[in-house]
Design brief:
Number of domains: 2
Order of helices and strands: HHEHEHEEHEEHEEEEEHHEEHEHHHHH
Strand content: 5-15%
Oligomer: single chain
Distance between the termini: 34 Å
């Protein structure tokens, strides 16, 4: 039975099974890594845009709009400069707003899970994502001081349930800016009253309490500092108050601080955009201490583009690393075929005697190289798709960021063709060696 070129190629690959398998795996890893990076890069941008919910403007005293969004919406860090509650009331009462929700960040649970103190309107007015509203599979929202609502990711990771009693870390667990560590107020125990359903946003990893609870703890810290400093003017009113008896009446304006304001400008029924957003932004810009980050349809895109500009070089570096891994896998194909040439020269000479031309021999080696690349590309595409799903699951579980990995057929085709082209290129040197194999020299009797 005549031996076809395909039979020759497959037998050759089976003969060198270990070398072939390791080379295919190296190609698959390179293809999978590049695919995962490309899929998560585009999907991550969409996830950031989704996570701002139905807020039009985010007000803070952060250094920039991007920092404000990362801190106030994505819990990247605690804002350093507070906004007074009196300023919040002035903004909420003087602008054409649908609603204004004050929030305070800076405390945490076990130094890992951010705590957001806010008003009850946070659960009734604010939507964490346009396609997700707050729902409570267990319990409900807080109704009084020192009650706690737990996000879905935080609840799953910490094991907190309705009825759990916890102590929060007042202040950041470790402030890199000041070097001062946060501390636990174990005399104030919070009761978990509600567990939220997952929304696929960073809010899933946060815990929520009312503002008054946080302000009372601030007041305790202030009184302790005044006592340590011997401030008798303030001590006279509070020297008989211990932690158990301090109430809202003991609060002063300096205790009532927030870090961000979620604003939604008045809109027409059934519409999301508002022509009043520029008016509100202009008002806030007259107060240079305030930072107003737009979170309308164009707002998140603008801020995310700024983020892309900052981390774009890192993304390019990661993709470049994937390209380097792919090139190294191409070198692996070349070395595997090159080394096999040393043992296959006699086989090639026999094929030449049986009538195979130099061009046919050249084509057989190129076909082997291309087949290895095709196997690696096919396996790599599968690895990449599975890897992207695993990575999105980790992001959802650890950070509460919902990412749906997706890519276009064009990108898949380009990766596939690039891998095939690199494999053919890697086979050129071994193919040239096979082309130049001497029949007489490799078939002559051994001395």
């Amino acid at each position: 039975m005549a031996m076809t070129d395909w039979t020759i190629v497959t037998r050759s690959l089976r003969t060198r099974f270990f070398s072939t398998a390791t080379t295919v795996v190296s190609v698959a890893i390179a293809v999978g890594l590049m695919l995962v990076l490309l899929m998560l890069q585009s999907s991550g941008r969409k996830a950031f845009e989704r996570g701002t919910g139905n807020v039009h403007l985010l007000v803070s005293r952060d250094a920039s709009g991007l920092v404000s969004v990362l801190n106030g919406m994505f819990y990247a860090g605690a804002p350093l400069k507070p906004v007074t509650y009196a300023e919040y009331e002035r903004i909420a009462g003087s602008l054409p707003l649908e609603w204004a929700v004050p929030v305070q960040l800076g405390d945490s649970y076990k130094g890992q899970w951010p705590v957001l103190a806010t008003s009850p309107e946070f659960f009734t007015k604010f939507r964490p994502a346009e396609d997700a509203a707050w729902t409570f599979p267990e319990g409900g929202p807080f109704t009084k001081d020192f009650e706690l609502v737990v996000g879905a990711v935080a609840a799953r990771a910490t094991g907190l349930k309705v009825g759990s009693r916890v102590v929060l870390t007042h202040g950041a667990a470790s402030s890199r800016a000041s070097g001062v560590a946060g501390h636990e107020h174990d005399e104030f125990r919070y009761s978990v009253v509600g567990i939220l359903a997952a929304t696929g946003t960073p809010h899933d990893r946060a815990l929520f309490s009312n503002l008054n609870s946080s302000w009372l703890i601030h007041a305790v810290d202030r009184l302790e500092r005044e006592h340590a400093a011997g401030d008798h003017d303030h001590m006279d009113d509070h020297e008989h108050h211990d932690h158990a008896t301090i109430t809202e009446k003991d609060l002063i304006d300096a205790d009532k601080k927030i870090t961000n304001i979620y604003l939604r400008v008045a809109t027409r029924p059934g519409q999301d955009a508002s022509a009043a957003v520029p008016v509100v932004m202009e008002y806030l810009r007259r107060h240079p201490d305030f930072q107003a980050a737009p979170l309308t349809v164009a707002g998140p895109v603008q801020e995310i583009r700024r983020l892309d500009a900052i981390v774009g070089n890192i993304n390019q570096l990661l993709v470049l690393m994937a390209v380097v891994v792919m090139v190294s896998s191409g070198v692996g194909i070349m070395l595997a075929l090159y080394n096999s040439m040393q043992q296959r020269q006699r086989q090639i000479a026999v094929l030449r005697v049986l009538g195979a031309s130099r061009g046919r021999i050249f084509g057989l080696i190129i076909t082997e190289s291309a087949f290895i690349g095709l196997l690696g590309a096919g396996l790599g595409l599968g690895v990449g798709l599975i890897g992207a799903q695993i990575a999105s699951g980790v992001l959802r579980t650890r950070l509460g960021i919902s990412i749906s990995p997706e890519t276009s057929p064009l990108i898949l085709a380009n990766i596939f063709l690039m891998t095939l082209g690199l494999s053919i290129l890697a086979g050129l040197i071994p193919a040239i060696m096979a082309y130049r194999t001497s029949v007489w020299r490799n078939l002559r009797p051994a001395a």
